[in-house]
What does this fold into?
Amino acid sequence: MITQSTFARGGEDSSPVVVPEDDVIFRLAQLLLLLAALDRVEHPGLSLERLGCYDFLVANPLLVLTDENDPERKRLLMAGFDGRALSYASPAHRFTTRRERLQHDLALLVAYGLAAPTVDRSVLYAVTPAGVELASRFTAVYARSYRLSADIVVRRLRRLSDQKLRKQVHAWTTTGRDSPRPEALDLLDAIDLLKESQADDPWLDKPPAPRPPHGPSA
It folds into this structure.
């Protein structure tokens, strides 16, 4: 389990409403688990761009596995991943935000000696032995589910060239009526239904009641 003593929060302000992806400790734990998963399959270090794609898609694997008959998709559903979560309704925005934070998060892992950059025509990042050891101590249910997602998604993504991966990420993070994801239409319907209910709510359109005049009544 990662605690305050394991990672610093990097100066991020606390908020009364905690969104997991806004918490630097949570993101560092995910990123460390991902790097450890890449090490298990003897995957070489990754560039910042490719690592950003892996980082987001492993956390949201049902964007990638869209076939309802896919046995690996069923394994992810059994592990607790749910494509009907409202976070799946805005994947493009969340991907952009997460990618912007990645360089900062990697810098922290490097500073703690849990990841290390190497240069091979470009800068590549990989986990260190200390990072592998720390990641092995994560025992939460989510950590086990995330490891499963990493094993499945990385195996599929590593077959794609950088150019093809870029195109696929654009397709996977675009939510529309023709989206291949089984849950996408339900999410869009839910959003439309919310808008319709707000539009039909007489309390939302009703002007405020006039205030009584000041002073004694006649």
